Amino acid sequence: MDMDEIKELVRLMVDNELSELDVSDGENKVKLKRGAGGEPVMVAAPASLAPAPVQADIAEPASAEEEFIEIKSPMVGTFYNAADPDSEPYVSVGAGVGADTIVCIVEAMKVMNEIKADCTGTITEICVKNSQPVEYGQVLFKVKPA
Question: Which residues contact 145 (CB under 8 A, 6 or more apart)?
Fold first, then answer.
């Protein structure tokens, strides 16, 4: 198995909300288990593969002048900036947010999940477009702390 096949298995785990997955393909065996935070981690790998992280959050280097809080997607799904197509967006650049402010919806498996800011500050950047697919851990917004 190569890393692309393993990444596809991880994607299937997240999409189907599985906590553990064992796959055998001839001599190759892979066992994946989701950690406490829901993030997939590789528990065991075939002897022919060197250990490698299955998924890594790669943070962009912060500017020396300003630091931002990143609001990340807690799941794989589709990003929506408003409750429905006729509604105003939950937030826009320059909007103030508090910990309980709903900033968007991520639809996963036909379930609309409201995403809260979980921080206090001002939205400085919206990193995804409406109706765009998003990955687990992908940055949705950047917030300048208050």
Answer: 67, 68, 69, 119, 120, 121
pTM for this model (two decimals): 0.55
Cα–Cα distance for residue pair 17/4, rounded to 1 Å: 20
For residues 38 and 83, membership in a common domain is answered with no
Count the domains in the chain.
2
Calpha distance 68→77 (Å, rounded): 24
Mean pLDDT per block of 10 residues along the chain (146 residues) reads: 74 79 75 62 44 43 68 94 92 94 93 93 95 94 94
Burial class of residue 120 (count of CB atoms within 10 Å of its CB; 0-12, 13-18, 19+): middle
Q: Compute the distance between CA of residue 101 and CA of residue 98 in angstroms, rounded to an integer.
A: 5
Q: How far is CA 110 from the centre of its chain?
A: 17
Structure tokens at 58: 């790669």
Indicate which CATH number applies to the domain containing 93: 2.40.50.100
User: 5: helix, coil or strand?
Assistant: helix
8 A C-beta contact, residue 103 and residue 91: yes
The range of the structural domain enclosing residue 8 comes to: 3-44
Cβ count near 24 (within 10 Å): 10
